[in-house]
Amino acid sequence: MHRRDAQAIRSILSLAAVAAFLIVPAAVEAQEQVRKNGHDAHQAHQAHVERNVVEITAEDYAFRAPAEIPSGWTTFELDNAGEETHMLFIARLPDGVTFDDYMTGAVMPFNEVWQELRAGEIDADEVFPAIGERADPWFWETGFEGGVGFLSPGETGTATVNLQPGNYVLECYMRTPEGEVHSMEGMIDPLTVTAASAPGAPPSGDVRITLSEAGMEFDREVRPGTHTFEVHFADHPEGTFGHNVHVLRADPMVTVNDAVGWMSFVNVEGLTDPAPGTFVGGLHLMPVGSTGYFTADLTPGRYLFVSEYTGHMNVAREVNVGH
Ligand SMILES: [Cu+2]
Predict the structure, then answer these.
(1) pTM
(2) Choosing a second label site near 198 at 20 to 30 A (CA), which of 58, 76, 123, 263?
(3) What is the distance in A from the centroid of ligand 1 to the CA of 37?
(4) What's the order of all strands across the beta sheet hosting 245-249?
């Protein structure tokens, strides 16, 4: 890794650590509440808590989404009404950076480098150094605030995160069969999170997943049914964007490495359909120390839970959901 690249990633990680201090207390408080009240009492309480649900539809290639929402615990419900795999990646812009700045200073440089890779003008190992040189320096201060992971056509997924007021971007960086990035085709929107606070509260997760350099840990066996996964981001390995989790229902011949390869930005056949299975939910990258939630309906079968940027470091798990 080039020194500049490493420095950039270090600075993103330290900012993520700072952001975690801002985000964690509410989540911790809620978790302590669960422990104090006991699980059943908490669930009864939850039934009376109003959810702040933001419905978003993904089409080929656009989001139908509100332009402005209140701050606080927010459940994004993404319905993939398109014919391709989509996602909802949520980024918080650094102070003073506009949506147009994000397009010219981040989306376009990433796209330029991708198009050069696709054309065979650069090699895979030149991709991230090139992005490090061409993205505007503020890009490394962008906050990655979760969002719904890859979703196959016809699937619906949710991601629940605690948003602070600010200017955000909703983005899909999948690629069309022709190799165009969805965000460049219009699948990107600004989102203003206002100072008004929503009445939402964190859900009560039924399976806790911890993402760390040690791997992807589950606190219990995953049974068939609809789950709310509580995901804790314990660390982000140096030199990576960090952990996230995507749930792929896949045949036995599909390996974790196949899934990681398909998710790779530097794979010219990656991030485009056909996917190696059916994506049923997930949660994008969040700051170190934070907790987010996602739902997935798991019928009996074989699933791969995979971190996009750290799956190659064994942050992944094959889960067989029994009958
Ligand atoms: Cu898309």
Answers:
(1) 0.84
(2) 58
(3) 41
(4) 278-283, 245-249, 301-306, 316-321
Q: 235, 86 in Cβ contact below 8 A?
A: no
Structure tokens at 150: 């890859």
The upper half-sphere exposure of residue 196, i.e. CA atoms within 13 Å in the direction of its Cβ, equals: 7
pLDDT band at 5 (very low <50, low <70, confident <90, very high): very low
Q: Over the stretch 44-72, which tens digit does the pLDDT of each residue have? A: 444 556 779 999 999 999 999 999 999 99
Residue type, 79: D
Q: 279 C-alpha vs ligand 1 centroid, how far in Å? A: 13
Rounded to the nearest angstrom, the distance between the alpha carbon of 61 and the centre of ligand 1 is 6
* pLDDT computed for residue 44 by the predictor: 43
Q: How much distance in Å is there from the Cα of 292 to the middle of ligand 1?
A: 22
Residue closest to 174 by CA, chosen among 54, 308, 76, 286: 308
d(CA 174, CA 188): 11
Taking the centre of ligand 1 as the mean of its atom positions, its distance from the CA of residue 173, in whole angstroms, is 6
Question: What separation in Å is there between the alpha carbon of 187 and the centre of ligand 1?
Answer: 6
Mean pLDDT (whole number) for 116-142: 95
- CB-proximal residues (5 Å) to ion ligand 1: 86, 172, 174, 182, 187
